[in-house]
């Protein structure tokens, strides 16, 4: 599946869950019209199982993690320092540094030596540019 399909699967699942909750709340509150409206909305949405939704979510997280790493490296190559990257990510400088360290360790563990030495030197400098 491409990214659009994965997002669509996850979004459909969340939409169905929201309408199912709306229907359940309406039923508990004796709101027959609200329950009927929620049921009608559910009828227009394709069924997406929880396991299919979870697989789509996991794949999205995996792909976005790769893209996050690519963007982090590109930012460093363009001269951004860790403080700037951390601010853009909404995390502390320490957290940004730890992300860098974990990715380098994973590359080494997976046998991907491309750029590992340069990444390690960058991280060891503390990302000061």
Walk me through what this model shows.
The chain is an all-alpha fold. The protein is 78% helix and 0% strand. The two termini are 38 Å apart. The relative contact order is 0.09. The mean pLDDT is 86.
Quickly describe the structure.
The protein is mainly alpha-helical and 129 residues long. It is built from six helices and no strands.
Task: Tell me the number of helical segments per DSSP (H or I, 4 or more residues long).
Answer: 6
Mean pLDDT: 86
Order of helices and strands: HHHHHH
Q: State the separation between the terminal residues, measured CA to CA.
A: 38 Å
Largest sheet: none
Beta-strand share of residues = under 5%
Give the overall shape, derived from the CA principal axes.
elongated
Please give the share of residues in helix.
over 70%
**Any idea what the radius of gyration is?**
22 Å
| Low-confidence blocks of residues | none
Structural class: mainly alpha
Strand segment tally: 0
Observed structural traits:
single chain, 129 residues, 78% helix, 6 helices, mainly alpha, elongated
What's the structural blueprint in terms of helices and strands?
Layout: H1 3-28, H2 32-44, H3 50-77, H4 82-89, H5 93-109, H6 116-124
């Amino acid at each position: 599946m491409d990214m659009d399909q994965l997002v669509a699967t996850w979004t459909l699942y969340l939409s169905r869950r929201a309408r199912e909750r709306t229907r359940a709340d309406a039923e508990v509150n004796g709101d027959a019209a609200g329950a009927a409206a929620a049921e009608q909305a559910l009828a227009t949405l394709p069924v997406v199982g929880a396991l299919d939704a979870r697989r789509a979510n996991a794949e999205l997280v995996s792909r976005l993690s790769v893209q996050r790493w690519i963007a982090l490296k590109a930012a460093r190559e363009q001269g951004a320092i860790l403080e700037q990257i951390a601010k853009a990510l909404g995390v502390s400088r320490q957290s940004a540094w730890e992300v860098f360290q974990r990715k380098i360790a994973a590359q080494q563990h997976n046998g991907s030596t491309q750029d590992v030495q340069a990444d390690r030197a960058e991280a060891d400098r503390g990302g000061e540019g």
